[in-house]
Amino acid sequence: MYRENVRVGDLVDGGAPLLGEPLPLELANATYAVRGVLRDGLTEPAHLGAWLRDNRSRLATRLTDAQLLGCTDDDLAAARDLRDSVRALASAAVRGTRPAPTVVSVLNASVRAAARWRELTWRSEPVASERSDAPPVRQALGEIAAHAVDLFGGPDRLELRACLAPGCVLYFLRQHARREFCSTTCGNRVRAARHYARATPPVDPPTPGTFIADR
């Protein structure tokens, strides 16, 4: 539903982190965790509008402010289905297992729902452009789904990783062999915990039968 007297910059996001990963993984990471507790970054249409706003510059689909403000419950449901599909596919890729057929079907349906084709127009100069019959928000989701097809169907699938930080549920595309974490924040947190564990001497348990006086 279009929100009158609201600017697109006023849309509050759902807290999902943006790490500069490929767009399918950025969408997958709209399920995230805070201190080990799962959070959903897409619980209302405004969250989807904010997420698309923050990634608008990376999309070939042109999205106006009015279109972002007009995200509907149906758009949100489509985005959540796509996100959950990409998460399941990423999990399967990381584990080296085969995803459920329904997961693949959801992704393919997202692509078909916003089928695109190229057309030539020729006025003063010839121009090639992409067209779709789908509404712009669905076009954007279809574009992300198509990138997901390329990601999981291509060699980059082998570089997909799940963050190794305890409690983190984010995925990333590894750019170098030693990368283990989705972000420097997770990496620093794990290194700090390791340092603390090394610096803190272990406490021996009391000998059975030993009296420990109150302090």
Task: Give a topology summary.
Layout: H1 23-28, E1 31-34, E2 37-40, H2 45-55, H3 65-69, H4 73-95, H5 101-112, E3 116-122, E4 126-132, H6 136-153, E5 160-162, E6 171-173, H7 184-199
Please, could you describe this protein's structure?
With 215 residues, this protein is of the alpha+beta class. It has a domain of 149 residues: Orthogonal Bundle (Jann2411-like fold). The chain is 42% helix and 13% strand. It has seven helices and six strands; from the N terminus they run H-E-E-H-H-H-H-E-E-H-E-E-H. Strands 1-2 form a two-stranded antiparallel sheet. Helix 4 packs parallel to helix 6 and helix 5 packs across helix 6. The longest helix is centred in the middle third of the chain and has 23 residues. It is elongated, with a radius of gyration of 23 Å. The C terminus is likely disordered.
Can you identify the CATH class of the domain at 8-156? Mainly Alpha
Task: Quickly give the CATH architecture of the domain at 8-156.
Answer: Orthogonal Bundle
The strand line-up of the biggest sheet is 1-2
Low-confidence stretches: 211-215
Instruction: Give a count of the beta strands, DSSP E runs of length 2 or more.
Output: 6
What sort of overall outline do the alpha carbons produce when their principal axes are compared? Answer: elongated
Radius of gyration: 23 Å
Class from secondary-structure proportions: alpha+beta
Helix and strand element order: HEEHHHHEEHEEH
At the third CATH level, what is the topology name of the domain at 8-156? Answer: Jann2411-like fold
Helix content: 40-55%
Give the overall average pLDDT.
Answer: 90
How many separate helices?
7
Beta fraction: 5-15%
| C-alpha termini separation | 64 Å
Q: What does the largest sheet look like?
A: 2 strands, antiparallel
